[in-house]
TrEMBL record:
<keyword id="KW-0653">Protein transport</keyword>
<keyword id="KW-0813">Transport</keyword>
<keyword id="KW-0333">Golgi apparatus</keyword>
<dbReference type="InterPro" id="IPR050840">
    <property type="entry name" value="Adaptor_Complx_Large_Subunit"/>
</dbReference>
<keyword id="KW-0472">Membrane</keyword>
<keyword id="KW-0968">Cytoplasmic vesicle</keyword>
<dbReference type="InterPro" id="IPR008153">
    <property type="entry name" value="GAE_dom"/>
</dbReference>
<dbReference type="Pfam" id="PF01602">
    <property type="entry name" value="Adaptin_N"/>
</dbReference>
<feature type="domain" description="GAE">
    <location>
        <begin position="646"/>
        <end position="741"/>
    </location>
</feature>
<dbReference type="InterPro" id="IPR008152">
    <property type="entry name" value="Clathrin_a/b/g-adaptin_app_Ig"/>
</dbReference>
<dbReference type="GO" id="GO:0016192">
    <property type="term" value="P:vesicle-mediated transport"/>
</dbReference>
<comment type="similarity">
    <text>Belongs to the adaptor complexes large subunit family.</text>
</comment>
<dbReference type="InterPro" id="IPR011989">
    <property type="entry name" value="ARM-like"/>
</dbReference>
<dbReference type="InterPro" id="IPR017107">
    <property type="entry name" value="AP1_complex_gsu"/>
</dbReference>
<protein>
    <recommendedName>
        <fullName>AP-1 complex subunit gamma</fullName>
    </recommendedName>
</protein>
<dbReference type="GO" id="GO:0030121">
    <property type="term" value="C:AP-1 adaptor complex"/>
</dbReference>
<dbReference type="GO" id="GO:0006886">
    <property type="term" value="P:intracellular protein transport"/>
</dbReference>
Length: 741
């Protein structure tokens, strides 16, 4: 056969291919020739063919058929053959293929070879792809080479030992005697690999960590020599002596000093020297400073040293390199809880990063800005964050809005400021706010009695002609329904009142009802608001009746149900309408284990919580209640016995996750104005439900009495029920209730 082409010629030929198909054709042709040569056991050109095969493997083409040829080259006595063979083994073989075990004996022989370069090839291969079986068989040979006086072999043996420890951790103690003198080596390559080996051993074994803590003074001495030594062309990188070794030593010091007072104290001075003497004009120096900062923040360092570390991160924020700014923000975010005051000094620089064009930097700056908010800077920080919310990309708006809500709730200097801030968020990014924003704001407004007139006026102006921000429209509709009389009367003292007529207010709410941008929930808010205004307005009641009547035939079932109920109020129970539609009482947030604190139901904000706790075993059963229908429960608590004629049928108020709750209704024989509701709760799951609690709320003109349940445990498999009696009293309508009996 003619001699195969050389690797250089193959590379040149492949590079001339104009299309992928042409390249593939060249590769297939060459692979066929290589296969033929392998079949004929051509020893002369095996090395050349395997080299070409490795190049094609690097291009992404299959080369597995050359695995055995690599083993034949490894067994050769020629160094050039061994070099290509070991390279091929590292690229084409791994521990998932049994053929790699055939190399074990060859590697063992080469580890004891008389030539250091052959020994080096064997160490590199074992350290790259050696399996746990190979590592067990050859660990003794590696340990011998780790004790040799040859620096070339010691550095390779140290890295190979790292791989052996990762594969077989129990062999770690075998290398312990050999590590005693590693740090006394003058060769930087050996020092570097020795530090890597010590780091691996400390990370994997607490006993090794305690053992090597005595090396801290020696590591400190090596690091000091590096930063104080003069120019060394062999190790100099941009004017810094061996930055790679410095970084490795700093990482090992960080591990050794963590949670240890003595070790931390021993390294405080050298860390201060590195932090103050390292050149920052080059990226090499910044890498060392970053590792120094991480070490200072992770050990038990002095307070002054921690401030120095944070100031270094502050300088990083002014760097033109985006990567350096990003790692600075990430590091500050990790330390802000423990060194809050030191990080606060760089607040203006952090806020400036919100304007960065890089989205990763912008997100980290946003997260860190929220972590810096406190009672002293809340006004200034919220101003910056609101500006950011107004101009940021859509993917930031949800997280930013949530962060502003939490910060405002925690640090608000006044209720007016709190309301203004939340309204600003709803106006800017209403479509991105979390689901509980609406009921939380309604609760805040309800409890701020002195701000009702101001709030309803602000909300009215906010939604004029713009219904795109649905949460804002929902809150505005609810407030107009509750406090529409204050809006019309112009009683606002906090700012100049506006002149609004009853018809103009109804025009806005009707526009919400018919707007294509309004969701079903928003329409529910608007319809309920219009109904509430029937008791707050005096000149537009007939118009309200017509609007409500129209939606009695709406295709939206929820909207139709509400309209029918409201029509019933107008036609049959008009005498009860003022009491039923009076203003909501002050809402209190109650921390419970239940699924809700304050819940909303299409235009009404009500409190109704069902809760059960898991069994004492700690298991999380499938029958734990995770959601309720508070609208149904609250409506029946509110309307049962008042909107319906005598003889109210029993209903199933809740039936989910194995928990079923039935309501039965009856009149009190002693007091006709009292409706008695009996609850029966059953459990169809396999586990008992414990700590059952039922809660409900009614308007303040009613009185609600919750009697104690018959038990707090609902038995599994429907083997028993819990009963509880609720009494709803309407003390101001005794005579009217008698008429309905």
């Amino acid at each position: 056969m003619p001699a195969p082409i050389r690797l250089r010629e193959l590379i040149r030929t492949i590079r001339t291919a104009r299309t992928q198909a042409e390249e593939r054709e060249m590769i297939q042709k060459e692979c066929a020739a290589i296969r033929s040569s392998f079949r004929e056991e051509d020893n002369t050109y095996r090395c050349r063919n395997v080299a070409k095969l490795l190049y094609m493997h690097m291009l992404g083409y299959p080369a597995h058929f050359g695995q055995l040829e690599c083993l034949k080259l490894i067994a050769s006595q020629k160094f050039t053959d061994k070099r290509i063979g070991y390279l091929g083994a590292m690229l084409l073989l791994d521990e998932r293929q049994d053929v790699h075990l055939l190399m074990t004996n060859c590697i063992k022989n080469d580890l004891n070879h008389s030539t250091q370069y052959v020994q080096g090839l064997a160490l590199c291969t074992l350290g790259c792809m050696g399996s746990s079986e190979m590592c067990r068989d050859l660990a003794g040979e590696v340990e011998k080479l780790l004790k040799t006086s040859n620096s070339y072999l010691r550095k390779k043996a140290a890295l190979c030992a790292v791989h052996v420890i990762r594969k077989v951790p129990e062999l770690m103690e075998m290398f312990l005697p050999a590590t005693k003198n590693l740090l006394n080596e003058k060769n930087h390559g050996v020092l570097h690999t020795s530090v890597v080996l010590l780091t691996e051993m400390c990370e994997r074994s607490p006993d090794m960590l305690a053992h090597f803590r005595k090396l801290v003074p020696q590591l400190v001495r090596i690091l000091k020599n590096l930063i104080m030594s003069g120019y060394s062309p062999e190790h100099d990188v941009s004017g810094i002596s061996d930055p790679f070794l410095q970084v490795r030593i700093l990482r090992l010091l960080r591990i050794l000093g963590r949670n240890d007072d003595d070790s931390s104290e021993a390294m405080n001075d050298i860390l201060a020297q590195v932090a103050t003497n390292t050149e920052t004009s080059k990226n090499v120096g910044n890498a060392i400073l970053y590792e120094t900062v991480l070490t200072i923040m992770d050990i038990k360092s002095e307070s002054g040293l921690r401030v120095l570390a944070i100031n270094i991160l502050g300088r990083f924020l002014l760097n033109n390199d985006k990567n350096i700014r990003y790692v600075a923000l990430t590091s500050l975010l990790k330390t802000v809880q423990t060194d809050h005051n030191a990080v606060q000094r760089h607040r203006s620089t952090i806020v400036d990063c919100l304007k960065d064009l890089d989205v990763s930097i912008k997100r980290r700056a946003m997260e860190l800005s929220f972590a810096l908010v406190n009672g002293n800077n809340v006004r200034g920080m919220m101003k910056e964050l609101l500006y950011f919310l107004d101009s940021c990309e859509p993917e930031f708006k949800a997280d930013c809005a949530s962060g502003i809500f939490l910060a405002a709730e925690k640090y608000a200097p006044s209720k007016r400021w709190h309301i203004d801030t939340i309204m600003r968020v709803l106006t800017t990014a209403g479509s991105y706010v979390r689901d509980d924003a609406v009921p939380n704001l309604i609760q805040l407004i309800t409890n701020s009695v002195e701000m009702h007139a101001y709030t309803v006026q602000r909300l009215y102006k906010a939604i004029l002609g713009d219904y795109s921000q649905q949460p804002l429209v929902q809150v505005a509709s609810w407030c107009i329904g509750e406090y529409g009389d204050l809006l019309v009367s112009g009683q606002c003292e906090e700012e100049e009142p506006i002149q609004v007529t009853e018809d103009e207010v109804l025009d806005i709410l009707e526009s919400v009802l018919i707007s294509n941008m309004s969701a079903s929930v928003t329409r529910g808010y608007a319809l309920t608001a219009i109904m509430k205004l029937s008791t707050r307005f005096t000149c537009t009641v007939n118009r309200i009746k017509k609007v409500v009547s129209i939606y009695g035939s709406s295709i939206d079932v929820e909207l139709q149900q509400r309209a029918v109920e409201y029509n019933a109020l107008f036609k049959k129970y008009d005498h009860m309408r003022p009491a039923l539609l009076e203003r909501m009482p002050v809402m209190e947030k109650v921390t419970t284990n239940g699924p809700a604190e304050i819940v909303q139901t299409n235009g009404e904000t009500e409190t109704a919580v069902l809760e059960t706790k898991p069994p004492p075993s700690g298991l999380q059963p499938a029958n734990q209640v995770t959601e309720t229908d508070p609208g149904m429960i609250s409506r029946f608590c509110r309307y049962a016995g008042f909107l319906f004629p005598t003889g109210i049928p029993s209903i199933t108020a809740y039936n989910k996750n194995g928990l079923k709750i039935d309501f039965t209704f009856e009149r009190s024989n002693t007091n006709p104005s009292v409706t008695v509701i009996t609850i029966q709760a059953s459990n169809s799951t396999e586990l008992d439900m414990t700590d059952f609690v039922f809660q409900a709320a009614v308007p303040k003109t009613f009185q609600l009495q919750l009697l104690s349940p018959s038990s707090s445990v609902i038995p599994a498999f429907n083997s028993g029920t819990i009963t509880q009696v609720i009494k709803v009293l309407n003390p101001q309508k005794v005579s009217d209730s008698k008429k309905n009996c």
